[in-house]
Amino acid sequence: xxxxxxxxxxxxxxxxxxxxxxxxxxxxxxxxxxxxxxxxxxxxxxxxxxxxxxxxxxxxxxxxxxxxxxxxxxxxxxxxxxxxxxxxxxxxxxxxxxxxxxxxxxxxxxxxxxxxxxxxxxxxxxxxxxxxxxxxxxxxxxxxxxxxxxxxxx
Length: 154
Description:
154 residues; mainly alpha; 0% strand; DUF4259; DUF4259 domain-containing protein
């Protein structure tokens, strides 16, 4: 991760997500790289959403959702979207929705395993992204606040 890569909360808070976002920023065509990453995730990780891959795919899907809805729950994501214009095609939206669904399912998912204690709150934070990808009306996302007191229970 370089100095230009911002720290994000919620779906953007892992090194894997930050690396995927940095890779997007370095590309000539953000939408093409997003499409490739999401296609690979949906194709290759349908049985189990693996560590690293799931974080990257979820972050990209959430950026697509934020572009669709105009809602970026944290300032760094908002600025990233301002610096990196891209158009969301119907295919990109469908891929992002499919990847989002795989990344947020409760079973066969690395994220749900490592975030067991905070999984319901994490999904609640992600709800505006889900709604945007599925074309549902929404309100801005609540700030995500993990419960660090329960870390030992993971």
